[in-house]
Amino acid sequence: MLIVDDDALIRDGLKILIEMEDDFEVIGTAANGQEAFEMCQLNRPDLVLMDIRMPVMDGVQGTQLIKRHFQNMKVVLLTTFKDDEYIKEAVKSGAEGYILKNQSSDSIIESLRAVGKGNTVFEKEVAQALSGLLKEVKKPVSTVGLNPRELEVLELISNGHSNKEIAELLFLSEGTVRNYVTTLLEKLQFRDRTQLAIFYLKHH
Predict the structure, then answer these.
(1) How far apart are CA 143 and CA 25, in angstroms?
(2) Is the pLDDT of residue 158 over 70?
(3) Percentage of the chain with pLDDT > 90?
(4) Can you tell me whether residue 100 is helix, strand or coil?
(5) Contact 5, 54 (CB under 8 A)
(6) Cα–Cα distance between 81 and 160 in angstroms, integer?
């Protein structure tokens, strides 16, 4: 795991906090998005925890650069800011999580674990700020042409479940769940499961 923040005290504090957990290994720290990308090239971390507002290259630009070259690398953006535009850009950049620094240390760790397992993590405040990102749909989610099983899958996605967890809950194969997710993305014209989750939370 890589930690990225322009504040050395925060970097070091997060490093100490995360290294106390047996299931995390911090491979290094960086001070901006450009340094983060360079470290990703060298060390290939599974997960990047990155601040948004940083000099040289901010967290959104850093996420875009990392995702362009390492699609399977997971990025969680951590910030004190609740700025709507930053949140929208964060999701469009491909980040798997957006969490606020005012959370407890336990909450931050659990969010990182959830993303590591393939889930997406964003707080309700973040979902509310994203209302302008998605196309406006006046109808409730139950009337946009989805069948009952698709609605079940969509609801579980909105609760942050991974494909494996959805498969276990609905007694389906992971391949079948992946097909449902693909169908939902095509029907609703979204790019990723984060947008599906936000859509459900907005219109359910």
Answers:
(1) 45
(2) yes
(3) 45
(4) strand
(5) yes
(6) 22
